[in-house]
Fold this protein.
Amino acid sequence: MKVSIIGIGTVGAAVATAVKNTGLVHEIVLFDRDAVRARAAAEDLGHAAAFSYDVKITAAANYRAIRGSDIVIIAAGANQKPGETRTDLLHKNVAVISDIIPRVMANVDAKNVKIIMVTNPLDVMVMLARRLSRLPAGRVIGTGTMLDSARLRVILSRHLGVSPQSINAYVLGEHGDSSMINWSSATIGAVALDDFCRQTRVSLPAAAKRTIEYRVRNAAYEIIRGRGATWDGIAGAAADLLRCIINDERRLLTVSVVDGSGDKSVAMSMPRVIGAAGVISSVVPKMTRDESVALRRSGKIIRKNYDTI
Ligand code: NAD
């Protein structure tokens, strides 16, 4: 299994480490327009690999080195500075993705390759990458709200005193400020969230849910304020998605892919079954009226941003 990563900044380097640590990949190619940075990252990671898995890690001087990649992960482009939103990155990163995708496609097997998008604003970048690559929608996959859903599960787990592994709760829609928390479909194991709270005598009033929502949506801003960027969470999400594809695991993950066609098409996160072929199917969970209004609004915001490029 050969994986190439384009963009070896803070996120790309962390993703490379997480990919190496899956132990599922025999070759990792790192490409950055800053060749010195990519070479240094490949060296450092290669040394780390000597303590773990036998994996060949190289820096690519040009795109020919990505030939034969099964999966290409794109983490290149501008990141948020303190106070910036993901949407503020739109025009800078349109230029970056427009530069990268044609070069990637000229060097991979379009019949099999899967592209994992990480660059923000994520959903619009998925739409752009899908258009430029002409790949089937199910093979251009954004990590989407996998990270937001993980943040929700972790914050909820602390409130409920139960492992995040037992929490099924989704953040849907945009990987951004308009994301929607699908409280009404949340379960702990097979028990509905509100039922679980009643039976375990944990109080989760509407005000507590609003605070949790705020913390989930603002997690990236808080982390960027504290350490300049976010990288560990997204690296975990990208590696988990990769594992699901490589092992054909068919888990339900909230990833972003383009749904629909023409003027109405949009990429946003919904629960989707992921396997070796990419996205196998998508499902719509139970939603209240307010939740479905919020999800539609989120889709419209993504589409409107896409229409400006
Ligand atoms: P960074 O500035 O540390 O690194 C970006 C890298 O991209 C740099 O090394 C740069 O040289 C490279 N690059 C830029 N243009 C390129 C091009 N045309 N070809 C090849 N390489 C190019 O930024 P970062 O913190 O690593 O963030 C990268 C992206 O990941 C940002 O858009 C950020 O918002 C996004 N991100 C996404 C999530 C998510 O959940 N999807 C989470 C965190 C960060």
The mean pLDDT is 97. DSSP finds nine helices and 14 strands in the chain. The CA atoms of residues 26 and 55 lie 5 Å apart. The first strand starts at residue 2 and ends at 6.
